[in-house]
Amino acid sequence: MSDVSTTHEHTRTSSPAGGSPEDLHPGQLEDIVQLICPDGARTASPGFDPWVADVTDEDLLGLYEDMIVVRRIDTEATALQRQGELALWAPLLGQEAAQIGSGRALRSDDFVFSSYREHGVAYTRGARFGDLLSFWRGTTASGWDPYSIGMATPAVIIGAQTLHATGYALGCKHDGVDSVAVAYFGDGATSQGDVNEAMVFAASFQAPVIFFCQNNQWAISEPVGLQAQRHISDRAPGFGIPSMRVDGNDVLAVLAATRIALDRARRGGGPTFIEAVTYRMGPHTTSDDPKRYRPTGELDEWAAKDPITRLGRLLEGRGVLTEDVATRVQQKADAVAYEMRAACVALERHPDPLTVFDQVYSGPHSGLERQKSQYAAYLASLDGAQS
Amino acid sequence: MSTKQFALPDLGEGLTESEIVEWKVAVGDTVTLNQVIAEVETAKALVELPSPFAGVVSKLFADEGSTVQVGEPIVEFDIGGDAAPASAASAPQATPASESAADAAADGVPAQLDGQLAPAVPERQSVLVGYGPRVEGGARPTRRARSWAAEPEEPAEPAESAEPGEDAPASGAPQPEQVGELSSAHAPERPRSTPPVRKLAHDLGVDLRAVTGTGDEGLITRDDVRREADARQEASVLDAGAGTGPSAESAEAAGDAGRDVRIPIRGVRKATATAVAASAFTAPHVTEFLTVDVTAGMDLVRSLAASPEYAGKRITILTLVAKALLLAAKRTPEVNSQWDEEAQEIVQFGSVNLGIAAATGRGLIVPNIKRADALSLADLSGAIADLVGSARSGSTSPRDLTGGTLTITNVGVFGVDAGTPILNPGEAVILAMGAVRRMPWEHRGDIALREVMTLSLSFDHRLVDGEQGSRFLVDIGTILRDPGMVLTMV
């Protein structure tokens, strides 16, 4: 307890150009910010409540529907992988609130740089279903046109996207626009050099970037405690970046935290670090088996904190989520799944291997040209070996 | 009524097979899309298979517990008319963003599929997860040390243009990585070659280990592989390895001698192999050596051989060593024992059944002399002679081949001095006698030409410690050096 309050104290005093301290939830001294309890009760949080005061029950229902839909997308994609339609899939099960709450806070001119698990964020950005899957089906070297939806294609290299986001944010600053770049990454990525370099750079230049860490407790098979002796959010103040630690399974708390960080960035207040504490209820990818490393009982413990269940309880309590509404939401989710499946099996075009070189740089690049010709010769030699 | 088959997919990035653990459906069951139909275990995970079709199960191709190769059909469905959701490939591919997403999306922007960005392909490394998969029966390539990665100059066929016979290892200024690799590598696991060349070798059925590379630093070239393939074809056609032209170059030795012969492993060879392998990997061996001046022992053998009592008996240094060993075993009974793993007991034998390793036309056999410790020297020499005689003639009785407790192997007859004998399985010690040589040796303060022999004793360290083993060996040496010392031992 005292640790945490000290951290927040530190956060406030150390933010160099951080605008008014009120930006960062004064009075919020709890370990973790939570607005909706697992049992569906709405709790008061003086620092955060004002940021979601405009959210109506209808809006909450929209967030609820989003979470149901992306969970359904995730389930369907996992099934498609098991059916041989996708080579691989990185499930988001359990992380719906962290992704929907943050994704829905963004403007269309903000820009997302994600890892490979942010299907929920991609959904909020308007990615088409075929585009969500083409990368995993191997029918494209990437996923979509980043500029069409304000979201870069997934970065498989752990943490690399934090540098991209910081660079993009710096560009926004130079352009004089108030757009914000958001980097999504996991708890494991915070151990990467790239993430730390990005934070140093972002702090130095007060770049309008949000470091959004979904701490899902597992870096593949390594529990977060192995690489974080303290809360991950405690690291950011050391870089001069204020941080928040929110319940990542609470869509409203995530929405509030993201809005705070966005507002701060738009007003020239520089970067913010958000640790959304959540849980990966499925495997790292469809290739692994969490039963081999996850302690028994841990899943049950987190299932009790399920992000969808708690919002459902809140909305039921308020009489917004009736049986009819629930049925309609489920029908919508099923329709999305059906549509996505159809889009998936219709994806048949495989990319020419040489296209991987095409859009690395905006212009010609002699080094890449050389690599490309070497690779072409290599491929040709494989053809020759058929004889 | 149309049917659809479902083939086992690669469930985890590079798997070649999976085991059907349990069927959740039976023939005749009606299933819905994504209904779990089976539980399947891959090398990485236990996963549930959701049905890709809605319909009626008409056939199951694999039993529970069976292993299925990726791509083989496992189940067939009757899917009726055109109602199967998964077959709805005609559904519109371009799906507009859902309405709830519309506020965030830039409206109407076509999501262009062509010419995508960076090569962010999913990693094919199946060790994406920490523990990695177990190696499977399939032919998935394993990781290897970098070889061609350090040769960017001629990517297609780097060694094709290299002159055969060029002094490859000395070729100037290799790249730093290559230097590091070469200096640290003792022996490469296999000859270096590029993937296209390996594929060619595979297609032509050429074992790259049999090919001598003529390319840069021993790199195997496409021509080397073709040469080897041609040579082999020639050899099989012409019967004899005439070694014409190129094939002579690639083979180590010319002519007939260069041809490999494959002999089936069976009979005595197989039994020996099994026995020594079992022994070597269960009994921790310790070997001690002792070199002894056996001139006095040899003198005794010579005088006994000339004496009337031993007329017609075949007394040799082996007889004397055997007797010395039997006497020494009395003083150190630990050497005449057995490790009974199952009973967790050490069996100390009441008498010695002395095994003598004999080289025969059919291979090595170790017949033994029962209760050898009760025999006089004369009887012992007779027994050894009988044993060796019947072994050579192939008439050793099965009884003589079992129940041994100690073994002597006389490698000295092959002209060698010492070695590390492998224990006859179930025995605690084995003594190897070296050749008796006349050599300059310290004798009474001077250097004299003496008859010298080295004894090598291996013992099972579970049963015998260095103290007992050493005492046993020294006792034998003492008797051979000075037979009169027996008086101090009995």
Which key phrases capture this entry?
heterodimer, A: 387 residues, alpha/beta, Rossmann fold, five-stranded parallel sheet, two-stranded antiparallel ribbon, 13 helices, globular, disordered N terminus, B: 490 residues, alpha+beta, OB fold (Dihydrolipoamide Acetyltransferase, E2P), Dihydrolipoamide Transferase, Chloramphenicol Acetyltransferase, 3 domains, seven-stranded mixed sheet, four-stranded antiparallel sheet, 10 helices, 25% helix, CAT-like_dom_sf (chain B)
Nearest-integer average pLDDT of chain B: 77
Which structural class do the helices and strands of chain A define? Answer: alpha/beta
Beta-strand portion of chain B reads 15-25%
| Poorly predicted sequence stretches spanning 5 or more consecutive residues of chain B | 83-144, 146-188, 238-254
Label the CATH architecture of the largest domain in chain B: 2-Layer Sandwich
Largest sheet of chain B: 7 strands, mixed
CATH topology of the largest domain in chain B: Chloramphenicol Acetyltransferase
Spell the H/E element sequence of chain A: HHHEHHHHEHEEEEHEHHHH
Rg of chain A, nearest Å: 21 Å
Would you give the CATH topology of chain A?
Rossmann fold
CATH superfamily of chain A: Thiamin diphosphate (ThDP)-binding fold, Pyr/PP domains
Overall CATH class of chain A: Alpha Beta
Q: Outline of chain B, from the CA principal axes?
A: elongated
The best one-word shape of chain A is globular
**Largest interface, C-beta within 8 A:** A-B, 92 and 67 residues
N-end to C-end Cα span of chain A: 71 Å
**Largest sheet strand order of chain A:** 1-2-3-7-6
How many structural domains of chain B? 3
- Helix count of chain A? 13
Record field, number of beta strands of chain B: 19
Helices, strands, pairings?
The complex is a heterodimer of chains A (387) and B (490).
Chain A: H1 2-14, H2 57-82, H3 96-103, E1 111-113, H4 119-125, H5 129-137, H6 146-149, H7 160-175, E2 181-186, H8 193-205, E3 209-215, E4 218-219, E5 222-223, E6 243-247, H9 251-266, E7 272-277, H10 298-303, H11 307-317, H12 323-346, H13 366-384
Parallel strand pairs in A: 1-2, 2-3, 3-7, 6-7
Antiparallel strand pairs in A: 4-5
Helix pairs in contact in A: 2-3, 2-4, 2-11, 2-12, 3-4, 3-9, 5-12, 7-8
Chain B: E1 2-7, E2 17-23, E3 30-31, E4 36-41, E5 46-50, E6 55-60, E7 67-69, E8 73-80, H1 176-184, H2 195-204, H3 222-238, H4 246-250, H5 267-282, E9 285-293, H6 295-306, H7 317-331, E10 337-340, E11 345-348, E12 354-356, E13 358-360, E14 363-365, E15 368-369, H8 377-393, H9 398-401, E16 406-410, E17 429-433, E18 437-443, E19 446-460, H10 466-481
Parallel strand pairs in B: 12-16, 16-17
Antiparallel strand pairs in B: 1-8, 2-4, 2-7, 3-6, 4-5, 6-8, 9-19, 10-11, 12-15, 13-14, 17-19, 18-19
Helix pairs in contact in B: 2-3, 7-8, 7-10
Domain Lipoyl-binding (chain B): 3-78
Cofactor (chain B): (R)-lipoate
Enzyme class (chain B): transferase
